[in-house]
Amino acid sequence: MQTWLKQFHYKELFLIGFYLSFITITSIAAFIDLMIANDFDLWLDLLFVAVGVGFLWYFLQSRNHKIAARAIYWTASAIVFLFVYHNAFNMSIMFTLLLPVVAFILMPPREILINMSLYYAVLAALFVQGFYRYEGHPFLHDDRALASYFIASLFVLAFGIFYNYAIEESHRKLEKANREKEILLKEIHHRIKNNLNIISSILGLQKLETNHPDIDRIIDQNRLRIESISLAHETLYRSGNLEAVDFGTYVRQLAEQALVAAGKEKEVTLKFHSDDATFELEKTIRLGIIINELLTNSIKYACQNGTCSVAMALTCKDESCILHYSDSGDTHALPVCDDTLGLSLVKLTLEQLHGTLFMHDPKPYHYRMEFPA
Q: I want to staple 45 with a disulfide (CB 3.0 to 4.6 A). Which of 30, 152, 323, 362 is the partner?
């Protein structure tokens, strides 16, 4: 529910809330009119409930805030005007004071001016007609009552103007602050990625001086570990969402990075399936370290004949996630559980995620990792 709500602007959320309130209150009014056999108001209520539901559905499909705001404003205005006229300007006249506030919240300044002008023109025409239709009416022919109504209208308008200004100004300041924060965070992640790449490059230069296969292998492994962390930062700031990393995108880029490092002599087929999962940066980095160790191991041992396949699947349900990993290695290949450093790194990282590693012995090698979502 929260994920669905996040897609809406604050004014869109208010618009949805107003639609739901209007539909609910009008439905309750229809039920009351049914109980007291007030047929005219009942059919009027049902008509406007249908209109409200229709325009709400239209807004959710089109996301056209301008049309939807006008529609609900004038739908609510129409039902108030009809009730005021039909009920001979009784207490329902007070509802005409409340609707202008809705316009100030739902609409931009220019739209407010246009719609408020039309609103008060219709209301004035309604008052003039009522004045001549109902002689001696206790409200329409009472100077004090009309003066009180006029003063109340001015109060509502003043409140609406200052409310609109305050909300819009606060929103502009918040948007500016958020943009500045986003730029700063992107710059931080970009610099972290560059610094990690510098460390990886230094290790690469160090490798040129060794000419020792075992040392070169250790350097390459550590470069991949560093680059997996760097990639998480890069994926984060490039995605436009600084709160979470798209796990599917990250894993595919990580696998491509590991395959490039393995060289053209290794041909690896990768199958990856994932729910639409996103994780915070810290969790993504830890999962990246685990996957990097497993991929490196698969490329090294399962691809001894030059070709192999790797399959990964992530499923998240309720409060937990399960990551399945397997490769096409045979029983003679050395699994990651026999690699002391690799196993230690995988287990330690999973412990930091409060997760558990399950290793299945039958061919192909299969690892299942469970951790909190």
A: 30
DSSP, res 338: G
pTM assigned to the model:
0.57
Give the residue from 316, 311, 317, 319 showing the smallest Cα distance to 269. Answer: 311
For residues 9 and 21, is the Cβ–Cβ distance under 8 A?
no
Listed in order, the ranges of the chain carrying CATH 3.30.565.10 are 261-373
- Non-local (6+) Cβ contacts of 147 within 8 A are none
**Which helix (H) or strand (E) segment is 178 a member of?**
helix 143-208
Tokens matching residue 21: 């309130």
- The answer as to CATH 3.60.10.10 being correct for domain 261-373 is no
Single out the residue of 289, 367, 292, 282 nearest to residue 323, CA to CA. Answer: 367
Is there a contact between 350 and 369 (Cβ–Cβ < 8 Å)? Answer: yes
Q: Residue 342 is encoded by which pair of tokens?
A: 């690799």
pLDDT by residue for the chain (373 residues), tens digit each? Answer: 556 666 777 778 888 888 898 899 889 988 988 888 888 888 888 998 999 999 999 988 888 888 888 888 888 888 888 888 877 887 677 778 888 888 888 888 888 888 888 989 998 898 888 888 888 888 888 888 888 888 888 888 888 888 888 887 887 888 888 777 877 877 887 888 888 888 888 888 887 777 777 787 788 778 888 888 888 888 777 776 767 888 888 888 888 877 777 665 567 778 888 877 888 888 888 888 888 888 888 877 777 676 778 888 888 887 888 888 888 776 444 444 445 577 788 888 888 888 888 876 555 578 888 998 8
Beta strands in the chain (DSSP E): 245-246, 267-274, 278-279, 307-317, 320-327, 356-360, 366-372
Q: How crowded is the C-beta side of 46, counted as CA atoms within 13 Å?
A: 9
Upstream peptide bond of 335 is cis (omega within 30 degrees of 0): no
